[in-house]
Design a protein that fits this description.
By secondary structure, this protein is mainly alpha-helical. Helix content is about 70%, strand content about 0%. The radius of gyration is 20 Å and the shape is globular. The chain starts with a helix and ends in a 14-residue tail after the last helix.
Length: about 160
């Protein structure tokens, strides 16, 4: 049973990444464009206002990148930090626990994105398309007798 679960892990991480990225991007789209009910029950966040508009932009852009699996670790790091900032500046001053201060979503997004920083994107990520092409071209250049520029040459005395 454990072997089957281990084999499915990249796909489970990918599903987690896709759903979390979609939900995060949806928050940003709602705040910026008023879709899906808009920001805080209707409307949009005024352009350029701190921190709401910038948070919404991070949500939309980072959420989209995470959804696609493009620069997942960096986007997840930025998204996690923005949710930590949101939690400690907006929610935590009202009460200690997320259940008391309404910060459950911020806390869950923060920890979810931090997990993606360490696990990576899993399967079905666009990053894998680019890394497979670059690693395939690097391995073909080393197998064809050309010097690999990414590895320093060692000199033995």
């Amino acid at each position: 049973m454990t072997a089957r679960l281990d084999h499915a892990q990249p796909y489970a991480v990918a599903l987690f990444r896709i759903v979390t990225g979609l939900l995060f991007a949806s928050h940003g789209a709602a705040s910026l464009f008023g879709v899906l009910g808009g920001a805080h029950g209707g409307g949009t966040v005024a352009a350029g206002t701190w921190p709401g508009w910038y948070a919404a932009a991070i949500q939309l852009i980072a959420g989209g990148l995470i959804l696609l699996g493009l620069g997942t670790r960096a986007a997840a790091f930025v998204a996690s930090g923005s949710m930590a900032y949101a939690y400690f500046t907006v929610h935590q001053p009202d009460a200690l626990w997320p259940l008391q201060n309404g910060g459950e979503a911020s806390a869950m997004f923060c920890w979810s994105f931090l997990l993606l920083v360490f696990t990576g994107p899993g399967a079905f990520a666009l990053d894998r398309l680019f890394t497979s092409r670059t690693s395939a071209s690097a391995s073909s250049s080393t197998s064809s007798g050309r010097r690999d520029e990414t590895r320093p040459e060692t000199v033995t005395a």
